[in-house]
Structure formats: structure tokens, C-alpha cells
Design goal:
Elements: E1 6-10, H1 14-18, E2 26-30, E3 52-55, H2 57-62, E4 69-72, H3 75-80, E5 88-92, H4 96-103, H5 109-123, E6 126-129, H6 132-138, E7 164-167, H7 180-186, E8 192-195, H8 210-219, E9 222-224, H9 237-244, E10 249-251, E11 265-267, H10 271-283, H11 285-302, H12 305-323
Length: about 350
Amino acid sequence: MATDKTLLVFNCHEPWIHQLGILGYRLDIIVNLRGKYNKGWDERMRPLPAHARLVTLPEALASPTEYYCIVAHNTTDLLDVRFRPEPRMLVLHHTLEGRLQEERSTVDPQKMRDMLRTYIDLVGGHVVATSMFKGESWGFTEDIVPFGIDADDYPLCSGEQPRGLRICNFINNRRQILLWDFHERAFEGVPVTLVGHNPDLPGVEAAKNWDHLKTILQSHRFYIHTADPRFEAGYNMAMAEAMAAGLPVLGNCHPTSPIRHGITGFLSDDPAQLQRYARMLLADKELALLMGRRARQTVVERFSLTRFRHGFLRSIEIARGKWYTRKIDPASLRAESFPVGAGAQ
């Protein structure tokens, strides 16, 4: 049951925003944002969370609602709401290095860290990172709240399709970050289904909706995640969803991967070796199902939705405490004095 408290939330990616429905607050979600390929709420990823409504940025800025907290996802968001009088937090979903790489930015990373720290300290903001890996990248490790997955939302994998699966948007824009050349060598000749918004890749499309995504996950034999440790974490929400559905994961050796080699999947920096593992799972469905069930248990233990709820509710209260002891009013800062871009959706 929703309370009379309302959060103002910038839309970043719908799967992460959807989990906020478990908090029990009403949600005003800002859509039609600059830089997003989908201007509204993308129903293909998730249905709108409970007790949520969609608003535009001008509507949010003019709203008479007294928001309990504002949830931003990048520096542009923070500057856009600098005239609102409520507590605010910044959620870090990506590494700084990965964002700068994707945006081809020439901003000095340490300068960006220092300026963000100064801004946050002055305006009484609070920073939450979705993993320690991302928090360390930005220099904010005080509050780490991993995303949450309810494994019971996903029917168990049957693995009837002897195919691998990978879910990713804008692959060609992120080839270096995703180690895509390594992916192509490792899975050359292996049947792999690609799912996601990739208009420049013929035949690659996003799932029609969340139920369709669950069906796709249920039918495949294994999941793939490769990432350059300099830029990207060894897991993301799509991979955790696949694990929740009971798929083992194949990928490169990454220091933050939750995969236990030979138990919940296979990791190797040798593309030929990884291909051998892939073909092993294609040939042995029972092995894939066994490893996938162990992967599902990893999600239950590491990415609990209940744990996310407790952690994020605590983060909101920390943000509120910092706001009321702030040094200056954010409205007094000029937008052009702060670099924008890094961390954009």
C-alpha cells in the first residue's frame, strides 16, 4: 500500500526503476528526457511500477507536490532539479571510465570526481552506487545498494533451445566496453540469440514485453556476458535476470563476476576455450540445467529484492539528513560551472 510520500525519479533504464515499486512510495517518473532513445516509458522492458505516474520535466519542476526525495542518475539530472526544494540523491549505475569511453569524452576523470564530490558536499546531496566496483570508480563507496531481483518472477529454464542468449542495447556503440571482438571469436559458429534495441543490426530486436523476455530466457541454454574490466562490471541486471531464470553464464574472467567457474557457468579469457564450454552446454542440457539452478541460487543470495528495499529506504533517509545540513542552496550554483555528460542515460 502506497503512503502519501512521493519520490521524484528521473527515468534511466526501466528495469532498475521498476524495482522502486517495492518501496511503498508513490512515484512521479520523469520521462521525455534528453539522450534516451525512448522518450516515454518503455513497456517492452517493464510495466509501469505500482503507484507510479509519468510526468515531464517541466511538469515536475512546476509540481506543487512536496517530494520526499529526488532520485537522479547523472549530473544533468542534478542540475535540472537544482531549483526544487527537496532532498536529492545521485545513483551511480556505471563506472566513470565506461561512461567517458562511451561518450568519447575528453574530461579528465579525476577532475570529474573532484568536481562531483565538491558539488555533492556543498548542496547536501547523497550518492548511492549500485556496486562497489562502480562506487570506487567515482570515489563514492559510503553507500552501496545492489539492484534487487525476485527470482520467483522468472519461470525456470527448460533449455529446449540449444542456443546461447545475450541481451544488450547499442552493441556497436559499446564494442570496446563489451569486449565484442572477443565475444565474436568465442561464439563464432555457435547459435546465439541477440536481444535488444540495436537498429543497426538486422534481425536484432528488443523483447515485446517482460513476459516475452521471460519466455526467451526460459527457452535458451546459457547466457553470455563479456565486459572489459576497465570500463564495465562483470554482471548487470540482464545477466542477473538470466541467472534467476536458471541459465548458466559464459564470459571472460572479470574480478567482479558472480559466476563460480564450473559451478554456475564458465569463465575464460581464451575464446577457443570458452567456445568449448559453450558447445559442451549445447550438447548436455542436463548439465546446463544443473548449473543454471545453482546460478539462480546465487541471485537469491546476492541480489535479494528485500535487501534492496531495506538498503534503498535507508539511503533515502541518509539523503534527507544531508539535505537539511547542506552548506548552500543548489539554486545558487551556475549550471555552466559543472561538467555534464558523464553518467548520462
